[in-house]
Amino acid sequence: MKRFATILHGSACGMMMLAAAVRAFAQVGERSRTVWDAPTLLNSIVSTIIFGLLGTILTIVGFKLFDALTPFHLEREVCEKQNVAVALVCAAMMLGISLIIALTILA
Asked: Minimum mean pLDDT among 18-22, 81-85, 92-96: which range?
């Protein structure tokens, strides 16, 4: 029963992250924004690499923070114990964090 409560808590955290991402997406869509155009192809490539690395690093930091906030070790649950429920919670959390980071970079 304690394991079920732990997984339920993790699911709630993952769903809150996904809801925050959807809300952020709606807010960005509501307001008008200017589009940034790089003057050259080289500037576009460099900015794509920089923003891609920034997004990847922030997603990893978000995952580690989520792992620290859960009462169990996520990597051990997914990799060693093959817990599919925890893997789905992690997937929802990663999608939520990735959407929030992408929309923050876009805004």
From this structure: 18-22
Instruction: Supply the DSSP symbol for 107.
Output: -
Domain ranges of the chain: 2-29+45-106
What is the secondary structure of 34-79 as a DSSP string? PPP--SSHHHHHHHHHHHHHHHHHHHHHHHHHHHHHSSS-HHIIII
How far apart CA 19 and CA 40 sit, in angstroms, is 37
Look up residue 64 and give its two tokens.
């580690």
N- to C-terminal Cα separation, the chain: 43
Mean pLDDT of all residues in 54-77? 87
